[in-house]
Amino acid sequence: xxxxxxxxxxxxxxxxxxxxxxxxxxxxxxxxxxxxxxxxxxxxxxxxxxxxxxxxxxxxxxxxxxxxxxxxxxxxxxxxxxxxxxxxxxxxxxxxxxxxxxxxxxxxxxxxxxxxxxxxxxxxxxxxxxxxxxxxxxxxxxxxxxxxxxxxxxxxxxxxxxxxxxxxxxxxxxxxxxxxxxxxxxxxxxxxxxxxxxxxxxxxxxxxxxxxxxxxxxxxxxxxxxxxxxxxxxxxxxxxxxxxxxxxxxxxxxxxxxxxxxxxxxxxxxxxxxxxxxxxxxxxxxxxxxxxxxxxxxxxxxxxxxxxxxxxxxxxxxxxxxxxxxxxxxxxx
Length: 333
Description:
Elements: H1 2-15, H2 20-61, H3 70-90, E1 93-101, E2 109-117, E3 126-130, E4 137-141, H4 147-173, H5 175-179, H6 183-216, H7 219-224, E5 235-240, H8 245-272, H9 305-309, H10 319-332
Antiparallel strand pairs: 1-2, 1-5, 3-4
Protein name: Synaptophysin
Main location: membrane
Subcellular location: Cytoplasmic vesicle, Secretory vesicle, Synaptic vesicle membrane; Synapse, Synaptosome
């Protein structure tokens, strides 16, 4: 009986809910811990949100509509074609193959590879060719150094890319300061003119340099530099020509950049405001009001004016004169 009573008390104690004061303290501790966790999360994500706010403000303040007008749109084209120009030239690497068949077939080499790449210092590129004598080989160097024209072309393209990037940033985010005091357009006009001239010089120089590179890497000319090929008993032939399409494209991009920069001179010049006084429309001519009396030339007096306008009737001509006559007759009677 006593054990049953103790078990009953234990069950009631276990199943009894906690007092209100204890539950309030537990909930308060839980809420406080949750708030501290939330504040800690906010403090961790705050720098990221701050950077996003700065980016959003810059985007909101940007005047992207300038990219729709020729001044900004051509600058975007200059940015793209400058990338194409220096990437097609600066990343080029070529390969040609020739075969040398000696009289003694065991000494032949049917796959001689000659590699070359930007900046086209060909005098540093070499390959080993068989001499067809005692199994020995001789090192042969290519001829020519065309690095000056290639590096000049790539340098102008890289600087044009950097300037186009800076100009686009100024057009989008600082266009009002760009037009302030007319200094920005004047500087932009001068730099654009310099780049237009540099594109002309660098593209022409690289076109000539590319022609020389093609000649120096022609397999027929490379074969003439191999001593074994100058002997009639041996036979030499080309196996693979170098692919020059990428370099041809770089020259094309260079002249396209020239056209873009020369064409952009006009739109930058318009921003300077120098031509504004000469583009004003002439004031309209003031025409005299039409004169009813002067439509046929000089004023001519109306011939009927003296008879109609200035006519005043004489009332004594008819009625009054007759009464006078009648009155005189009465007097006679």
